[in-house]
Amino acid sequence: MILKTALFCIIIIKILFMGLIDLKAYAFYDTEERTRMLPFYVHTFCDDYPQEDQYYDCFDINQLNLVVSGSGGVDCEGVHYDLKPGDLFLFSVRSQIHYYPGENGLHLRFITFSGFACEPLFAYFDIKKCHCFRHNATETALNDLLASILRNADVETVSSMLYAMLVGIGRFLQQPSPSDGLQKALRYLESNYQFDLPMNAIAQAGNLSESVFYKCFRKKMGMTPSAYRNNIRIEWAKHLLISHPRMSIHTVGERVGFHSTSYFVACFRKIVGVTPTAFRRQASSPLKSS
């Protein structure tokens, strides 16, 4: 064991300081049979691998990649993912992979890993064959893991770090995507349009932060959540003005969520182009003439 550790240290020193491969090709971490008894273990690793245009018919080990520079794409199980710096790409054993480097190349930092607990953990978190995502905590965990390997940390420590990182990935991937969360928040807003709910409450209905909710909402709907809520209120106000011709303008405004009549009238005029009274008059004119 002492001889093995010494040889490993010599290899790492050569890699880092003598520039024999400058970590451009992967290195084996630990291949002892005893290591493979651990629930999780790192097999190979690389700090900066220049990925070529390459197809793997059935990749036989799990791999986590971080794009450190360049760009490109990857096909996994028939799904294409564009890759750019900061992207993380996880694929599990027996995946079909095809890498496409961009004009400036595609450089990856990666670990390959295995262990008898990988498959149960992936099943527990419903981790599919391939995932492409961005997650600062996972990027930090991967960098810390590689740093520990280069410091010749014991395999048990590396196994524990790998487990913690995979659990973090699983929890992150279980979170709803912004698009899914936005749909939930939209339904919540539309069901409660008459209440002046704060934006953070609407965002929480979609399990989104207020800033992410606001940004996604503006991008998808082309307006602020408050403006969208006012549009819903005005549509319901138009319905009440026609279906309840004797209901006062003040009551109509209150029914749809406006506590100020003057603000209701101003919003109605801005969206519809006329006042509520004028809209009711125009809507009833065809009925009177008939």
Strand content: 15-25%
**Helix share, percent:** 40-55%
Largest sheet report? 8 strands, antiparallel
The span between the termini is 100 Å
The total strand number stands at: 8
The pLDDT mean sits at: 86
By secondary-structure content and strand pairing, the structural class works out as alpha+beta
Order of helices and strands: HEEEEEEEHEHHHHHHHHH
Q: Helix count, per DSSP?
A: 11
Unreliable segments (pLDDT under 50, ≥5 consecutive)?
1-25
Please state the CA-atom Rg, rounded to the nearest Å.
29 Å
The coarse overall form would be elongated
General description of the model:
The protein is α+β, with helices and mostly antiparallel strands. Helix content is 50%, strand content 23%. The protein has eleven helices and eight strands. It has helices spanning 2-18, 118-124, 136-150, 155-174, 178-191, 199-205, 210-221, 225-243, 249-256, 261-272, 276-289, and strands at 27-28, 41-50, 54-59, 62-76, 79-83, 88-91, 95-114, 130-133. Strands 1, 2, 3, 4, 5, 6, 7 and 8 form an eight-stranded antiparallel sheet that branches. A hairpin with a 2-residue loop joins strand 4 and strand 5. The radius of gyration is 29 Å and the shape is elongated. It starts with a helix and ends with a helix.
